[in-house]
């Protein structure tokens, strides 16, 4: 082979490498453009999502509080404070919140995410008879239920400005709800029982593979996710301590960014595992469902007896 022929081959080889690299950069750049476009589109959707329930009757999926929508509202400052309290509860109200959770640890995305117990419409659903208390509860009673049970704390006085602000935010989110406060995505998703009974051992393996990266291998939480058991988590009297409720929440909302990728069986198994772990007690748990008929997945006995069958 002549030197000139060898040089030509080298030049062709270098040219091919350069063209390949350029093509790769173009492809990479186009991918990033598409990603940025998708992110921008999602951001625009999220910015407008908080008001979308007024049009569709659905709670928004994920939206920050849009301060512009409060222009002219005489309760603007109270609504903003309520939003801040719900999103930083243990920091803002350490005398009343007893663990590391915040209200939006369960009521996700500022309380507007469907199938994550959204606050949208809740103000229109109270007063409401609740079988767990056996009486008609006001919205403030329901808020205090969460403070005592889910936040392992104590009741917020009804006259406390913080209670007024929390209720103001919930009322604002419910401003366009239909009579009765019924909205799509209300409460938790309906999740049928799995083919086999929930198993904590299987749930432990799923937790390690799909949940521990956010909640920690020991379940004690990380900067991006709350503790799921132990002294800094919810009490045995919280709704999330019921396996079926926890499974429905997990299936619809976890892992964040990959929702509904767990099967119903996996969600039930993880719920069984998480709720088999130690957690704070709830002193008045025996008084729950005073008229009987507690849900079958309640993890403790109650004093209430089932009413006699109708004649």
Gist?
With 311 residues, the chain is mainly alpha-helical. It contains 11 helices and 2 strands, in the order αααααββαααααα.
CATH topology-level name of the domain at 67-173 = Cytochrome Bc1 Complex, Chain D, domain 2
Helix tally?
11
C-alpha-based Rg, rounded = 25 Å
Q: Could you say which structural class the secondary elements and strand pairing correspond to?
A: mainly alpha
Based on Cα principal axes, name the global outline: globular
Beta-strand content bin: under 5%
CATH architecture of the domain at 67-173: Orthogonal Bundle
Mean of all residue-level pLDDT scores: 83
The ordered H/E elements are: HHHHHEEHHHHHH
Distance between the termini: 106 Å
How does this model look, in words?
The protein is mainly alpha-helical and 311 residues long. Among the domains are: 67-173, Cytochrome c-like domain (Cytochrome Bc1 Complex, Chain D, domain 2, Orthogonal Bundle); 200-287, Cytochrome c-like domain (Cytochrome Bc1 Complex, Chain D, domain 2, Orthogonal Bundle). Helix content is 43%, strand content 2%. It contains eleven helices and two strands. It has helices at residues 3-49, 53-56, 76-87, 89-92, 108-111, 139-150, 161-173, 200-210, 212-215, 243-253, 264-274; strands spanning 128-130, 135-137. It has a two-stranded antiparallel sheet with strand order 1-2. α3 (76-87) packs across α7. The protein is globular and about 55 Å long. The model is unreliable at 6-63 (pLDDT under 50).
